[in-house]
Amino acid sequence: MENKTLFDKVWDSHIVKSINGSSQVLYIDKHLIHEVTSPQAFSELKSRGINLFRKDKIVATADHNTPTINQHLPIKDAMSRNQLDQLTKNCKENDIELYGLGHKYNGIIHVIAPELGITQPGMTMVCGDSHTSTHGAFGSIAFGIGTSQVAQVFASQCIITEKPKSMRISVNGKLANGVSPKDVILYIISKLGTNSGTGYFAEYTGNVFENMSMEGRMTVCNMSIEMGARGGIIAPDNKTYDYIKGREFAPKGKELDDKIKYWETLETDEKAVFDKEYSFDASDIEPMITYGTNPGMGIKITDSIPNIDNTSFHKSLEYMGFNAGESLINKQINYVFIGSCTNSRIEDFRIVAKYIKGKQKADNINALIVPGSHKVAKQIKDEGLQDIFEMAGFELRQPGCSACLAMNDDKIPKNEYCVSTSNRNFEGRQGQGARTLLASPLVAASVAIEGKIIDITKTIL
Amino acid sequence: MEKFVKLTSNAVPLAIENIDTDQIIPARFLKSTDREGFGKNLFRDWRYDKDDKPKSDFNLNNNKYSGSILVAGDNFGCGSSREHAAWAIKDYGFKVVVSSFFADIFKGNALNNGILPIQLDAEKLKLILELIEKEPKTNIEIELEEQVIEVKSLNIKESFYIDAYKKTCLLNGYDDIDFLVNIRKEIEEFEKNTYI
Ligand code: SF4
């Protein structure tokens, strides 16, 4: 019996060869691309006269720059339009499958690949995007790469990289009412810090993850990069197979049966040793919110902002307009953003709709709801959630990254607070001078209704 | 890629921790489809106020600091995978970034662009940052073959880690694509054994 981790099993089976030092040539099963990080890779290939090696292993979408209203009209911003045109042209020239604007499969790359059945256990997947870690929820090794590496994968379907170290994060016990997967990962990052995972790949284990839906697991793996880890991975189980079955690009019939037999071997052997281990008790986790300018600066929503004697910490509080020792409860908020590859799947919107049904958003609130894909948008409509959102005064937009990084017109104004379900609260992330507080969809919904931060645990019991 | 062998230069100190790639190059500048020209927007929102006037309290705007080495606080380059961050640093004129910790993707992106990331322990980094702030004309010497960074006036001579393959690439100006295209046959063999 071998003593391998789940990560080792998938990684080792994709090594083409080792080269000097600790670098290895790693084979990539799926290469996801979008408009922002691919154009320079295409031009590099072209200028060096190198042809694309495996076009059928590439899936392309447009998501970062896309407008969330009037997607059928030409994009107003000339540079955004140019970037999208470039992607279309590059995909056409290289015969790559593109789910561009207007395509029924279009959406945020990390939302569409799983929902189309492209993401599968045991795969290696890369994308010029750090939140590629999302796909680890299926027991695949998925991580973000830079544009030079995008060009490498174009040229060879491989990258040269060192093997990351392994770390295991276990969470066991019962989550309290109102505590969601987003709270679990925000809690973990607040405990471990934003660089605890650097150089590592994290496996999440324990009954909390076992009991989580696939959507929840994706939320957790999505934010692995926020503690510095290249990616996160969760062992596949029946829930994983059931999620994949029947999706557009999922294996079918005998092929599926064979695959499942293989997928069932993808778990960490009992005696496998990790380089680092952490474990947490589910009952310690409460609804979370961030108060600073990195995702590690999170607290339980009922806690006060800590006081840390460090210039970077004070710089961060100054940007946010908060004081050490202050509580965030009752803080007035004018913007709520529910979307991004962290929380824009149907389950997220069901939770929001359930909470706001029959209620009205507060007058001071601008509440933006942006589905992760056209498929999610359709589900929102089909399940009647659209009516609930509209009746409550929320603005339901067309799919895309939107105010998660504000490359399109969806920006939060300077100095305004935004409670956001996205994954980064960096300075200016949602617009120049915008102040982001990360939270779960449920917390975001409660803020939209109240116009301020409340202790959600009191209202949902 | 440009070769990197050795370098002696002054340095610009940036004693801020967790500098993320959104600060290095904000998302609104990622719409370009070229690799050039990002240097003018390096640290844009820290460097310029809302009327595009340089902020006098930011070290890149301070004439007393110069050189092609950036010395930054812990956990440099965290956040997004945007290689634009490395392009901006290079385009501005930095060839080396020194910190006590680098985010993985940034480190890879830097090396793929001929920028050398040097990781030092936190104590040494603090000493160097303090010295440059006091003595901006301090020289820092870097020797890649020996993997050594030296600050004579502090009596600091430290060796740093770099993967052997990456070191060869930097010393010779090779990049990964040449290597990978040359082993396409082996990759095809791998595919045959694994996927058929
Ligand atoms: S939603 Fe945000 S984090 Fe996710 S891919 Fe888009 S920009 Fe990146």
Structure in words:
The complex is a heterodimer of chains A (461) and B (196). Chain A has three domains: 6-162 and 242-257, Aconitase, domain 3 (2-Layer Sandwich); 165-236 and 267-284, Aconitase, Domain 2, CATH 3.40.1060.10; 288-460, Aconitase, domain 3, CATH 3.30.499. Chain A is built from 16 helices and 19 strands. Chain A starts with 5 loop residues before the first helix and ends with a helix. In chain A, strands 5-4-3-6-7 form a five-stranded parallel sheet. Chain A has a five-stranded parallel sheet with strand order 17-16-15-18-19, with helices on one face. A four-stranded parallel sheet of chain A has the order 11-10-9-12. Chain A is α/β, with parallel strands linked by helices. The longest helix of chain A has 17 residues, at 78-94. In chain A, helix 6 runs parallel beside helix 8. Chain B has 196 residues and is an alpha/beta fold. In chain B, the strands form two sheets. In chain B, strands 1-6-7-8 form a four-stranded antiparallel sheet, with no helix packed on it. In chain B, strands 2-3-4-5 form a four-stranded parallel sheet. In chain B, a hairpin with a 4-residue loop joins strand 6 (140-143) and strand 7 (148-151). The longest helix of chain B is centred in the middle third of the chain and has 13 residues, at 122-134. Chain B is globular, with a radius of gyration of 18 Å. Chain B starts with 5 loop residues before the first strand and ends with a helix. The model of chain B has no long low-confidence stretch (mean pLDDT 95). Chains A and B meet through strand 2, helix 2, helix 3, helix 5 and strand 8 of A and helix 4, helix 6, helix 7 and helix 8 of B. Iron/sulfur cluster binds next to loops of chain A.
